[in-house]
Amino acid sequence: MDRAQKEKVVEELGQIFESSGVVVVAHYEGLTVAEMQDLRARARAADASVRVAKNRLAKIALEGKPCASMAEYLSGMTVLTFSEDPVAAAKVAEDFAKGNDKFKILGGAMGENALDRAGVEAVSKMPSREELIASIVGCIAAPASNIAGAIGAPASNIAGILSTIEDKAAA
Predict the structure, then answer these.
(1) Fold type of domain 3-126
(2) Where is the signal peptide (predicted)?
(3) SS3 sequence, 114-142?
(4) Which of 108, 122, 126, 133 lies at a 20 to 30 A Cα distance from 148?
């Protein structure tokens, strides 16, 4: 790899470290090609990515970045799993690590915060962006559905509701 290629890799890694919601660093020594392809496929399905990079180039790319503290994990045969969603890459890495003893999660970073092994596990248990959006929509939609249910109720129910409101107003 010549100097221009190395500079390009450092630039790409720098963009990954800046734009990713979470970056997980793991050792992958002993993984077969098929196992690595499985990891990449799982990551793709979760809108995450997997990248093997030279530790030296990754450390250069980390200089001056908010997540520079994760440089301590970059030794040996390391692989980066990353995603814009702050939870997706951690979930993919944790799920893959459960089924494969050769894949050892070391730590990572979430924005400016360095994550140790336990931190990555905690992030993986958080709800994803889509799950949070769905629960918020459910909270917003609940009052509207209650109103729609009251409006669609038979006339006797509406009459009962009105008389109850009238009784409370008179009291």
Answers:
(1) Alpha-Beta Plaits (3.30.70)
(2) none
(3) EECHHHHHHHHCCCCHHHHHHHHHHHHHH
(4) 133
